[in-house]
Amino acid sequence: MKEFLLLFRQPDYDYSNTSPEQMKDLGTKWHQWVNGIVAQDKFVSNGIRLSLDGKVLKSGGVITDGPFVEIKEKLGSFIIVKAENIDEAVTLAHGCPALDEGGSVEIRPVHVQP
Predict the structure, then answer these.
(1) CATH code of the domain containing 11
(2) 57 CB-near residues (< 8 Å, 6+ apart)
(3) Which residues contact 2 (CB under 8 A, 6 or more apart)?
(4) 80, 82, 7, 73: which is closest to 40 by C-alpha?
(5) How many domains does the chain have?
(6) What is the C-alpha to C-alpha distance for residues 108 and 39, in angstroms, rounded to an integer?
């Protein structure tokens, strides 16, 4: 089995207009989806939710505000799963709640040093 990073990108939207019930429903969707991966014994590690603000350091010492300010999606969080290959990892990514909100899931192999 190999390990893959599932990186969640979500649209740049404002949660301040989201009701507590909507936030609870969204949390339930995420828990159910991750628990489905756990039930398949494919879950390796839970990432943490990333803050929407930050800094980006570019070559030449240029510092900009906010992560990836030139794109309209925000990096939300990530998990690490195990799968036989990238196609299986993509299958595990299906059903991710970020997709319901117009977001995406980036699937990348984790490089393990020998």
Answers:
(1) 3.30.70.1060
(2) 63
(3) 82, 83, 84, 85, 109, 110
(4) 82
(5) 1
(6) 22
Q: Where are the alpha helices (DSSP H) in the chain?
A: 20-39, 86-93, 97-100
Handedness of CA 80, 43, 86, 112 (dihedral sign): positive
Is 114 part of a structural domain of the chain?
no
What range does the domain containing 31 cover? Answer: 2-109
The model's pTM: 0.75
Cβ-based burial of 100 (10 A; exposed 0-12, middle 13-18, buried ≥19): exposed
Tens place of pLDDT per residue across the chain (114 aa): 889 988 887 776 566 777 889 889 988 998 999 999 999 999 998 776 666 667 767 767 777 666 554 555 567 788 999 999 999 999 999 999 888 878 889 898 988 766
pLDDT of residue 61: 74
Burial class (CB in 10 A: 0-12, 13-18, 19+), 83: buried
CA distances for 76 relative to 1, 39, 82, angstroms: 26, 23, 20
